[in-house]
Structures are given as structure tokens and as C-alpha cells.
Write a structure and sequence with these properties.
single chain, alpha+beta, 3-stranded mixed beta sheet, 5 strands, 194 residues, binds zinc ion, Arc Repressor Mutant, subunit A, 8 helices
């Protein structure tokens, strides 16, 4: 049995709780609902959503793109201990709680604005604006895990990230604007490279 299937077979309470967020036709929860849900979920696990953990979740929910651990660390100024272990511990806690994910190819973290998921989450990652959005690809991810499982490998973790151009859907100019810009010999956007 894989660690993954053990995790998804967690307590009935947890499964019910998560299904609540991901049921078809469910509206996107508000930031306040997600913060409250994270506090409830922590309590179900015998833990608590401390001020720092809550702050980190809030920062990620408010962010318009995935944040690196160092950006999260910077946000702790005036809230709590500004040390890398504090930031990483809070991020790990929120990952295990199911409310945030690490976007591996960006080495950054994103809050799940649809709430926790029992299944591995897939992302589209824009190579131009650095934004990421969860995509509904549960069947593909399950298929991938099954293939690996059937080969006899033990799966502990799966991630599916598709990279490309958001074409204006996330943070870039729209596809039409970009095409127009190319037609007019536009200047290179130097300040976008640090
Ligand atoms: Zn983009």
C-alpha cells in the first residue's frame, strides 16, 4: 500500500470535511471560510492554527501568484520570528493540513483557493508571468499514479505541472495584445528580468 492511499484513507471526518469543499457546483469559498476551515482542520488533527500559521495561509490566499519561502519569510516581519525554520515549519504544516501546495517547478507555494483536495492537484504554470492555477486533471493524475503503482513502485507523492503561456488568463497580456505587440517591433521589457 502506498503512502498516498493511506493518506486518502485518513479519518472519516477528514474525508467528509474535504469532500465538502470539492463537491460539484460548490462555489469558491471565501478567504475567511478557508481560514476558519484550516483552524477546524488543525483542531481535528489535535493541533492549532497558530498566529504565524494563520498569517502564512492568509498571505498565500491574498497573493496573486505563488510565493517562495523567502517571500513568505519577509511577510513574517512584525508577526513572529523572522527565521527560515519558522517559515518552513509553517509551510510544512499547511501542506500537511491540505490548504497549500508547493509548485515544484517554481519552488514556490500556493494556497488552494478551492479548499483542500483528497487527490493530488495539477497546476498550469505560466513561464512568462510566473503565475500558477490549479487545473482539474484528477483523472490524469490518478492514471499516472496507477501506472507507476502497477509497475510495482511505491508512490509517496505525485505532482503534475504543465508549463506554458497563460495567454492573458493569469498575469500576462492577452494573447491578442501580445500578437499586436510583436507586430509593432516593441521594445524588450528589460525590467522583467532581475
Ligand atoms: Zn502568464
Amino acid at each position: 500500500m502506498t503512502r498516498l492511499s493511506k493518506r486518502s484513507a485518513a479519518t472519516g471526518k477528514r474525508r467528509l470535511h474535504r469532500r465538502r469543499w470539492r463537491s460539484p457546483g460548490k462555489e469558491k469559498p471565501s478567504r475567511e471560510e478557508l481560514l476558519q476551515a484550516a483552524a477546524d482542520e488543525a483542531q481535528l488533527n489535535g493541533k492549532s492554527l497558530t498566529a504565524i500559521r494563520k498569517h502564512v495561509l492568509n498571505v498565500l490566499l491574498e497573493a496573486d501568484q505563488p510565493l517562495t519561502a523567502y517571500e513568505v519569510l519577509d511577510s513574517l516581519e512584525g508577526v513572529g520570528s523572522v527565521s527560515p525554520p519558522t517559515a518552513y515549519r509553517a509551510l510544512d504544516f499547511l501542506i500537511h493540513l491540505g490548504f497549500i501546495k508547493r509548485v515544484e517547478s517554481l519552488n514556490a507555494y500556493v494556497a488552494l483557493d478551492q479548499g483542500p483536495s483528497d487527490l493530488p492537484v495539477a497546476f498550469f504554470v505560466c513561464e512568462k508571468c510566473g503565475q500558477a492555477e490549479e487545473i482539474d486533471a484528477a483523472d490524469s493524475v490518478i492514471g499516472l499514479i496507477s501506472t507507476v503503482d502497477n509497475k510495482g513502485f511505491g508512490v509517496s507523492h505525485a505532482s503534475l505541472e504543465v508549463r506554458g503561456d497563460c495567454r492573458g488568463k493569469l498575469g500576462c497580456d492577452t494573447w491578442a495584445d501580445t500578437a499586436a505587440g510583436h507586430a509593432q517591433s516593441s521594445t524588450v521589457d528589460e525590467h522583467s528580468h532581475e
